[in-house]
TrEMBL record:
Gene3D superfamilies: Mannose-Binding Protein A, subunit A (3.10.100.10). It comes from Oryzias sinensis. It holds the Pfam family Lectin_C. Residues 20-141 form the C-type lectin domain. This is C-type lectin domain-containing protein. Keywords: Disulfide bond, Signal. It comes from the Eukaryota.
Amino acid sequence: MDYRVIILIFAGALLSVSSAQTRQFYFVNTPLNWRDAQSVCRQNYTDLATIENTADVDAAIVALSNYSGKAWIGLHDDIVNGWRWSLSDSSFYGDGESTYRNWYPGEPNNMYGQQLCVVFNGNNGFWDDLDCSVALSFVCYNGELPFGFY
């Protein structure tokens, strides 16, 4: 077999591992409103969690480990443009992040016209819209590549 083919296959495998490892989720069990949670995540990590696909849902559930309640993630309704992620750098996002949604059936419902932020359910990973002023735990993520994946 041609060694160039083997190297190409190996390089492709490394690339897929590194792209799968680009985010690490962190559960912060300190109840804060959405804006304050966003601030803490931006100071200590990258931002509130952005969830692109079912693998991210599974990773966030693992980060919440034994917590089965609701926790803030970075999705919010800015009223002008609809549902958007907290991190405003569009060059950061992958293919599915602008369109992937994991709403609980019947959500979002914007009950009383006040539900502009999104919570992640630690039991099943489904999302629900909620009033941003509610104090909840939250999920942050670090968008930097882990050591060894450069």
